[in-house]
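Check these lines:
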Amino acid sequence: MIGLPSTAFALQAAGITSLLYDPRGVGTSDGTPRNNINPFQQVDDMSDALTFLSSRPSVDPRQGVGLWGFSLGAAVAMATGAVDPRAKFVVAVCPGTETSYDLGKLRNVLMKAAKDRESRIKGNEPFYVPMLTKKGESPVGWDPGFEHDAIMRLLGQYDETDPLRAELAPGHVNKTTAETYRHMLLWDVGQASKYITQPVLFLLAEFDQVIPVERQMVHYEALKAPKRLHVESGAKHMDILDSPKTSESVNRVQVEFVRDAVTGKVEAA
Protein backbone atom coordinates (compact mmCIF):
# COMPACT_ATOMS: atom_id res chain seq x y z
CA MET A 1 0.00 0.00 0.00
CA ILE A 2 2.84 2.42 0.77
CA GLY A 3 5.59 2.46 -1.81
CA LEU A 4 5.94 -1.26 -2.45
CA PRO A 5 4.96 -1.26 -6.15
CA SER A 6 7.01 1.83 -6.96
CA THR A 7 10.04 0.40 -5.14
CA ALA A 8 9.70 -2.94 -6.93
CA PHE A 9 9.50 -1.20 -10.31
CA ALA A 10 12.61 0.84 -9.50
CA LEU A 11 14.55 -2.29 -8.56
CA GLN A 12 13.35 -4.12 -11.65
CA ALA A 13 14.36 -1.17 -13.84
CA ALA A 14 17.87 -1.60 -12.41
CA GLY A 15 17.91 -5.30 -13.33
CA ILE A 16 17.00 -6.59 -9.86
CA THR A 17 14.20 -9.18 -9.80
CA SER A 18 11.54 -8.33 -7.20
CA LEU A 19 8.67 -10.30 -5.68
CA LEU A 20 5.69 -8.61 -4.01
CA TYR A 21 3.44 -10.74 -1.81
CA ASP A 22 0.92 -10.46 1.02
CA PRO A 23 1.54 -12.40 4.24
CA ARG A 24 -1.06 -14.98 5.12
CA GLY A 25 -4.41 -13.65 6.26
CA VAL A 26 -4.09 -10.18 4.73
CA GLY A 27 -4.63 -8.58 1.34
CA THR A 28 -5.08 -11.08 -1.49
CA SER A 29 -3.42 -13.99 0.33
CA ASP A 30 -5.57 -16.70 1.83
CA GLY A 31 -5.50 -17.77 5.46
CA THR A 32 -7.69 -17.19 8.49
CA PRO A 33 -8.37 -15.42 10.74
CA ARG A 34 -8.24 -12.39 8.47
CA ASN A 35 -6.08 -9.42 9.48
CA ASN A 36 -4.47 -11.31 12.32
CA ILE A 37 -1.07 -9.61 12.38
CA ASN A 38 1.47 -12.12 13.66
CA PRO A 39 5.08 -11.11 12.97
CA PHE A 40 6.32 -14.56 13.99
CA GLN A 41 4.23 -16.13 11.21
CA GLN A 42 5.31 -13.37 8.84
CA VAL A 43 8.93 -14.39 9.35
CA ASP A 44 8.00 -17.88 8.15
CA ASP A 45 6.11 -16.38 5.21
CA MET A 46 9.14 -14.32 4.20
CA SER A 47 11.37 -17.39 4.32
CA ASP A 48 8.88 -19.20 2.09
CA ALA A 49 8.84 -16.24 -0.29
CA LEU A 50 12.64 -16.46 -0.44
CA THR A 51 12.35 -20.14 -1.31
CA PHE A 52 9.88 -19.38 -4.08
CA LEU A 53 11.89 -16.52 -5.59
CA SER A 54 15.10 -18.57 -5.48
CA SER A 55 13.43 -21.13 -7.74
CA ARG A 56 12.61 -18.61 -10.49
CA PRO A 57 14.63 -18.82 -13.72
CA SER A 58 15.10 -15.03 -13.65
CA VAL A 59 17.14 -15.27 -10.43
CA ASP A 60 20.87 -15.95 -10.57
CA PRO A 61 21.65 -18.34 -7.68
CA ARG A 62 25.24 -17.08 -7.64
CA GLN A 63 24.01 -13.62 -6.65
CA GLY A 64 21.37 -14.88 -4.26
CA VAL A 65 18.16 -13.39 -2.87
CA GLY A 66 17.81 -10.60 -0.34
CA LEU A 67 15.03 -9.40 1.94
CA TRP A 68 13.24 -6.03 1.86
CA GLY A 69 10.68 -4.56 4.22
CA PHE A 70 9.03 -1.30 5.25
CA SER A 71 7.96 -0.39 8.82
CA LEU A 72 6.80 -3.60 10.58
CA GLY A 73 7.76 -5.43 7.40
CA ALA A 74 11.31 -4.15 7.80
CA ALA A 75 11.48 -5.58 11.31
CA VAL A 76 10.16 -8.86 9.92
CA ALA A 77 12.88 -8.78 7.24
CA MET A 78 15.53 -8.27 9.93
CA ALA A 79 14.25 -11.19 11.99
CA THR A 80 14.03 -13.37 8.89
CA GLY A 81 17.62 -12.53 8.01
CA ALA A 82 18.66 -13.58 11.50
CA VAL A 83 17.06 -17.03 11.26
CA ASP A 84 17.49 -17.69 7.52
CA PRO A 85 21.17 -17.66 6.45
CA ARG A 86 20.13 -18.11 2.80
CA ALA A 87 19.26 -14.40 2.65
CA LYS A 88 22.03 -12.45 0.95
CA PHE A 89 21.17 -9.05 2.46
CA VAL A 90 18.45 -7.10 4.30
CA VAL A 91 16.97 -3.72 3.35
CA ALA A 92 15.09 -2.18 6.29
CA VAL A 93 13.11 0.97 5.41
CA CYS A 94 11.91 2.87 8.49
CA PRO A 95 12.00 -0.36 10.50
CA GLY A 96 9.33 -0.80 13.15
CA THR A 97 11.86 -1.61 15.82
CA GLU A 98 9.71 -0.47 18.75
CA THR A 99 6.07 0.12 19.60
CA SER A 100 4.75 2.30 22.42
CA TYR A 101 1.43 1.74 24.14
CA ASP A 102 -0.88 3.42 26.61
CA LEU A 103 -0.92 0.81 29.37
CA GLY A 104 -4.57 1.35 30.30
CA LYS A 105 -5.79 1.09 26.70
CA LEU A 106 -3.51 -1.88 26.03
CA ARG A 107 -4.91 -3.75 29.03
CA ASN A 108 -8.45 -3.22 27.71
CA VAL A 109 -7.51 -4.68 24.32
CA LEU A 110 -5.64 -7.58 25.93
CA MET A 111 -8.73 -8.33 28.02
CA LYS A 112 -10.72 -8.53 24.78
CA ALA A 113 -8.02 -10.81 23.36
CA ALA A 114 -8.23 -13.10 26.40
CA LYS A 115 -12.02 -13.30 26.10
CA ASP A 116 -11.56 -13.85 22.38
CA ARG A 117 -9.54 -17.00 23.05
CA GLU A 118 -12.33 -18.29 25.27
CA SER A 119 -14.89 -17.52 22.59
CA ARG A 120 -12.96 -19.08 19.71
CA ILE A 121 -12.56 -22.35 21.62
CA LYS A 122 -16.35 -22.52 21.36
CA GLY A 123 -16.15 -22.07 17.59
CA ASN A 124 -16.97 -18.36 17.37
CA GLU A 125 -15.43 -15.84 14.99
CA PRO A 126 -12.52 -13.71 16.28
CA PHE A 127 -12.98 -10.34 17.95
CA TYR A 128 -11.82 -7.32 15.95
CA VAL A 129 -10.75 -3.81 16.88
CA PRO A 130 -10.14 -0.88 14.49
CA MET A 131 -6.56 -0.14 13.45
CA LEU A 132 -7.54 3.50 13.85
CA THR A 133 -10.93 5.03 14.62
CA LYS A 134 -12.51 7.67 12.39
CA LYS A 135 -10.80 10.22 14.66
CA GLY A 136 -7.43 8.61 14.00
CA GLU A 137 -7.12 7.16 17.48
CA SER A 138 -5.45 3.81 18.12
CA PRO A 139 -7.14 1.33 20.48
CA VAL A 140 -3.80 0.93 22.31
CA GLY A 141 -2.76 4.59 22.43
CA TRP A 142 -0.24 4.64 19.58
CA ASP A 143 0.37 8.24 18.45
CA PRO A 144 1.64 8.90 14.88
CA GLY A 145 2.39 12.55 15.67
CA PHE A 146 2.23 14.96 12.77
CA GLU A 147 1.88 12.04 10.31
CA HIS A 148 -1.69 11.58 11.52
CA ASP A 149 -3.21 13.29 8.46
CA ALA A 150 -1.29 11.09 6.02
CA ILE A 151 -2.45 7.97 7.80
CA MET A 152 -6.06 9.14 7.79
CA ARG A 153 -5.89 9.81 4.04
CA LEU A 154 -4.54 6.31 3.52
CA LEU A 155 -7.33 4.73 5.53
CA GLY A 156 -9.87 6.79 3.61
CA GLN A 157 -8.59 5.45 0.32
CA TYR A 158 -9.24 1.87 1.43
CA ASP A 159 -12.66 2.08 3.05
CA GLU A 160 -14.03 -1.47 3.27
CA THR A 161 -17.55 -0.10 2.65
CA ASP A 162 -16.54 1.67 -0.57
CA PRO A 163 -16.80 -0.62 -3.65
CA LEU A 164 -14.69 1.83 -5.64
CA ARG A 165 -11.65 1.72 -3.35
CA ALA A 166 -8.27 1.48 -5.10
CA GLU A 167 -7.38 -1.86 -6.64
CA LEU A 168 -3.90 -1.76 -5.10
CA ALA A 169 -5.13 -3.23 -1.81
CA PRO A 170 -8.49 -4.89 -2.52
CA GLY A 171 -8.30 -7.00 0.63
CA HIS A 172 -7.47 -4.18 3.03
CA VAL A 173 -9.84 -3.36 5.87
CA ASN A 174 -9.35 -0.92 8.75
CA LYS A 175 -9.50 -3.52 11.50
CA THR A 176 -7.35 -6.20 13.06
CA THR A 177 -7.89 -9.03 15.48
CA ALA A 178 -7.64 -8.32 19.19
CA GLU A 179 -5.20 -11.23 19.23
CA THR A 180 -2.80 -9.13 17.13
CA TYR A 181 -1.79 -7.23 20.25
CA ARG A 182 -0.83 -10.42 22.08
CA HIS A 183 1.60 -11.15 19.26
CA MET A 184 2.96 -7.61 19.13
CA LEU A 185 3.54 -7.40 22.89
CA LEU A 186 5.80 -10.48 22.72
CA TRP A 187 7.56 -9.44 19.51
CA ASP A 188 11.12 -8.15 20.02
CA VAL A 189 13.13 -7.73 16.83
CA GLY A 190 16.04 -6.32 18.82
CA GLN A 191 16.74 -9.75 20.26
CA ALA A 192 16.73 -11.45 16.85
CA SER A 193 18.73 -8.76 15.06
CA LYS A 194 21.76 -9.46 17.25
CA TYR A 195 22.27 -12.59 15.15
CA ILE A 196 22.12 -11.04 11.67
CA THR A 197 25.33 -11.69 9.74
CA GLN A 198 24.28 -10.46 6.28
CA PRO A 199 24.79 -6.85 5.11
CA VAL A 200 21.97 -4.58 6.31
CA LEU A 201 20.78 -1.23 4.96
CA PHE A 202 18.92 1.03 7.39
CA LEU A 203 17.02 3.55 5.25
CA LEU A 204 15.44 6.09 7.59
CA ALA A 205 13.23 9.18 7.26
CA GLU A 206 14.57 12.35 8.88
CA PHE A 207 11.17 13.38 10.24
CA ASP A 208 9.77 9.94 11.11
CA GLN A 209 7.12 10.40 13.79
CA VAL A 210 5.91 6.78 13.77
CA ILE A 211 9.27 5.38 14.92
CA PRO A 212 11.65 8.29 15.63
CA VAL A 213 15.11 8.10 14.08
CA GLU A 214 16.84 8.21 17.46
CA ARG A 215 15.05 5.01 18.51
CA GLN A 216 15.80 3.27 15.21
CA MET A 217 19.46 4.25 15.60
CA VAL A 218 19.70 2.29 18.86
CA HIS A 219 19.00 -0.85 16.85
CA TYR A 220 21.30 0.17 14.00
CA GLU A 221 24.22 0.72 16.37
CA ALA A 222 23.59 -2.71 17.94
CA LEU A 223 23.97 -4.50 14.59
CA LYS A 224 27.19 -6.50 14.37
CA ALA A 225 26.79 -7.34 10.69
CA PRO A 226 28.17 -5.27 7.78
CA LYS A 227 25.81 -2.32 7.62
CA ARG A 228 25.03 0.94 5.90
CA LEU A 229 22.92 3.89 7.03
CA HIS A 230 21.05 6.47 4.98
CA VAL A 231 18.77 9.10 6.53
CA GLU A 232 16.67 10.72 3.81
CA SER A 233 16.54 14.48 4.33
CA GLY A 234 13.04 15.93 4.68
CA ALA A 235 11.29 12.54 4.47
CA LYS A 236 8.56 11.24 6.78
CA HIS A 237 7.60 7.67 7.58
CA MET A 238 4.51 7.71 5.38
CA ASP A 239 6.02 9.34 2.29
CA ILE A 240 9.65 8.21 2.11
CA LEU A 241 9.02 5.73 -0.72
CA ASP A 242 6.45 7.56 -2.85
CA SER A 243 7.15 11.28 -2.44
CA PRO A 244 8.35 13.00 -5.64
CA LYS A 245 10.91 14.79 -3.47
CA THR A 246 12.50 11.64 -2.03
CA SER A 247 11.70 8.59 -4.17
CA GLU A 248 14.52 9.09 -6.70
CA SER A 249 17.16 9.46 -4.00
CA VAL A 250 15.78 6.59 -1.95
CA ASN A 251 15.65 4.24 -4.94
CA ARG A 252 19.21 5.13 -5.90
CA VAL A 253 20.41 4.29 -2.38
CA GLN A 254 18.60 0.95 -2.42
CA VAL A 255 19.88 -0.09 -5.84
CA GLU A 256 23.45 0.83 -4.93
CA PHE A 257 23.25 -1.12 -1.69
CA VAL A 258 21.85 -4.26 -3.36
CA ARG A 259 24.59 -4.20 -5.99
CA ASP A 260 27.26 -3.73 -3.32
CA ALA A 261 25.76 -6.41 -1.08
CA VAL A 262 25.84 -9.12 -3.75
CA THR A 263 29.44 -8.27 -4.63
CA GLY A 264 30.69 -8.04 -1.03
CA LYS A 265 31.31 -4.29 -1.00
CA VAL A 266 29.36 -3.37 2.14
CA GLU A 267 31.78 -2.46 4.90
CA ALA A 268 31.89 -4.49 8.10
CA ALA A 269 30.53 -2.99 11.33
